[in-house]
Write a structure and sequence with these properties.
The chain is an alpha/beta fold and about 220 residues long. The protein folds into 2 domains: about 100 residues, Tetrapyrrole methylase, N-terminal domain (Cobalt-precorrin-4 Transmethylase, domain 1), CATH 3.40.1010.10; about 100 residues, Methyltransferase, Cobalt-precorrin-4 Transmethylase, Domain 2 (2-Layer Sandwich). Helix content is about 30%, strand content about 20%. The protein contains 8 helices and 10 strands. A 5-stranded parallel β-sheet has the order 3-2-4-1-5, sandwiched between helices. The model has no long low-confidence stretch (mean pLDDT about 90). GO terms for molecular function: protein methyltransferase activity. Pathway: Cofactor biosynthesis; adenosylcobalamin biosynthesis. One of its GO terms (biological process) is cobalamin biosynthetic process. InterPro entries: 4pyrrol_Mease, 4pyrrol_Methylase_sf, 4pyrrole_Mease_sub1, 4pyrrole_Mease_sub2, CbiE, Cobalamin_biosynth_MTase.
Length: about 220
């Protein structure tokens, strides 16, 4: 039985697709992924399954098409708040071949030319935003993946309420796409911005009072 390939496709731009991911995509006969990734990456002859709020149906689809050669497309890197966690609940490690990708967090820090070995990485997907803000209080450098239930302006308003309005915020949206946008701002200004239809972003939040942005840390 062929292994299920879980392919990290980066932000979705072909420029950030690794050669290993390209080879895996080329050999797959069945692709499973989000609509945006399938539009960019699927070929006409490949069978596709669009991931929405249908993860149980996704697993059934993978099982029924596995012998044909299935590849699951994961945003960024599959293991960083990605689909890999869910797949591991239904398939053994031996059944999966994971191909890492460039995460949106990596790309955000690269765009900003900021080292990120000392960053706390969080995701707002499925977690109370207030809990995340409390974690940020104790870290000078944070990368937060936002989502529909917690868009950047909502997170920013919570930072203001938590008396962290003095943090520097870089809000990075649509990374790798033509409509990419990076804002350097404050929580107060960001809280007043409309993010309708643009909730999937990376917020890099810096406490400049307690942390040098380019803290060398352990350079080994």
């Amino acid at each position: 039985m062929p292994r299920i390939r879980v392919i990290g496709v980066g932000p979705g731009n072909l420029d950030y697709l690794t050669p290993a991911a390209q080879r895996a995509l080329a050999s797959a006969r069945v692709l499973v992924g989000g609509q945006r990734h399938l539009v960019y990456l699927a070929r006409e002859e490949q069978k596709t399954f669009v991931i929405k709020n249908n993860l149980a149906a996704m697993v059934d689809f993978i099982r029924s098409h596995r012998e044909e050669g299935v590849a699951v497309l994961a945003s960024g890197d599959p293991g960083l708040y990605g689909i890999l966690n869910y797949l591991r609940q239904h398939f053994t490690p031996e059944e999966l071949e994971v191909i890492p990708g460039i995460s949106s967090v990596q790309l955000a820090f690269a765009r900003l030319a900021i080292p990120w070995h000392d960053a706390l990485i969080l995701s707002a997907h499925g977690r109370p935003a207030g809990d995340l803000v409390n974690l940020m209080r104790h870290h000078g450098k944070v990368a937060l993946l936002t989502g529909p239930g917690a868009p950047p302006n909502h997170i920013a308003s919570l930072l203001v309420k938590a008396e962290m309005a003095d943090r520097k915020v870089f809000c990075c949206c649509n990374l790798g796409y033509p409509e990419e946008e990076i804002l350097e701002t404050t929580p107060g200004k960001l809280a007043r911005r409309d993010f309708s239809g643009q909730s999937y972003c990376v917020m890099v939040i810096i406490d400049e009072k307690s942390l040098d942005i380019c803290n060398p840390g352990d350079s080994r």
